[in-house]
Structures are given as C-alpha cells and as structure tokens.
Backbone:
C-alpha cells in the first residue's frame, strides 16, 4: 500500500476515531482500505457504499483524494467515483475552496473557483465574474472565501516562467483580526512539501510549479479549511 493511500485512509480513520466515541458507525481503517482496493466482501462493500452516500466526512475525503490523485494509482469502485462527483454540498460543509488557473506569459486565466475574486477594489462572486466574461488577470489572482470560523485569502502570483508564488492569509471571519498559531501545509499527491506554524496568520509558498496541490489550514485541534489548487500552462 503506497504512502498516498496510507495517508488518505489514515485521515478517514482519524475522523472515524473521533466520531466513533460519540456513537457514529464510521468504517474503520482496514475496512476503508480493503474497500478502496476492491477486496471487500459484497456485504461489507454495500455497507460502506451506503455509509459514504450519507457521511459528509468520509465522502469529502474520498472526493478530495480523487481530485488530486491520478485514478490509475488506485482502484476506486465506479459507484464511489460517481458519488464523489455529486458532492458539492459535502465539500462545502467541511470547508473546501477550489481554484484552477492557467499561466499565460504575464497573465493568469481563471478557469474555475468556488470563492470570490478580487476585481479592482471589490470581491466578486465567481458566477457574477463569469457573467461579465472576466477571466484574465495581469500577474496576480486573489480569491477570498469564508469558512466556519475563518476567512481565507489565497493570492497566486506568476513570478517567472512556469513558477508561481502562493500566499495564504487567514483572518477571523467576524472581526478580521489575524488568526494566530495556525498550521498551514502545502501537499502534492498526498506528500507534504512545506508546512509552517503561521503566528502571523499567513504563509507564502514560493517557486510553485505546474500541477495540483492541496493547502490545509489547521488550528490546534482540528483542520479549519482546505484549498484545492491547480495551476496549468
């Protein structure tokens, strides 16, 4: 079982451990691992499919995994892939922001985001942005999104060639005060690339090459937000 597979199933298992104490029947780590490898019995497979169909935590973790991992690296049952594709509300409920960009010389083209985009001095919701046919930005794109407790701002700047600088800023959603003692981590294909304890409420990742990334923002006890970032050429 590769490192990426262990990481994703480990996350699901930690969620299970936390909620199992409160009586929620999440599958355990071995059951999830066997299911994703296609080794579960028909009865167990049916039970897990039913659970994922109604469980926000497990469904969202599997969805994020499918978004950042080539499907050929892991055999995932077709039913779960279909279920994951229909999970926008679940994704929202556990705190996700998606951002897909294309580098064009000194310009950035915004293909997709679930946050609000800074245009001039105003943050504009992405549907309004599309209606105005605004998608090209000179050198920098700034996206904002509110989560349960924090407001996250993501700045992607094309600095040279195919490399970008990504800055993450977290503030209190109500007071706009900097949220201190956050752990901000950059991952690619489940592997941790950089991680900072951001006492200033922000972290900057430099020389980010093309590809898909996950940025996790965590407090002392729990994850507070996740950002799925894809940069293309």
Residues:
């Amino acid at each position: 079982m590769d490192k990426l597979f262990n990481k994703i199933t480990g996350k699901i298992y930690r969620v299970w451990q936390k909620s199992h104490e409160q009586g929620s029947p999440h599958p355990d780590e071995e059951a999830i691992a066997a299911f994703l490898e296609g080794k579960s019995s028909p009865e167990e497979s049916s039970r897990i499919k039913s659970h994922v169909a109604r469980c926000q935590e497990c469904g969202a973790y599997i969805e994020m995994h499918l978004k950042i991992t080539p499907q050929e690296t892991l055999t995932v049952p077709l039913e779960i892939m279909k279920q994951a594709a229909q999970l926008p509300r679940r994704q929202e409920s556990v705190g996700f922001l998606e951002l897909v960009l294309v580098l064009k010389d000194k310009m950035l083209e915004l293909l997709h985001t679930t946050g609000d985009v800074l245009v001039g001095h105003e943050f504009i919701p992405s549907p309004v942005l599309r209606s105005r046919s605004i998608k090209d930005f000179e050198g920098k794109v700034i996206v904002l999104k509110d989560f349960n407790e924090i407001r996250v701002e993501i700045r992607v700047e094309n600095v040279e060639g195919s490399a970008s600088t990504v800055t993450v800023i977290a503030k209190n959603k109500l007071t706009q005060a900097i949220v201190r003692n956050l752990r901000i981590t950059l991952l690619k294909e489940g592997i941790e690339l950089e991680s900072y304890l951001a006492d200033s409420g922000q972290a900057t990742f430099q020389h980010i090459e093309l590809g898909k990334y996950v940025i996790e923002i965590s407090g002392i006890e729990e994850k507070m937000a996740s950002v799925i970032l894809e940069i293309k050429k």
Notes: The chain is about 30% helix and 40% strand. Residues 106 and 139 are 5 Å apart (CA to CA).
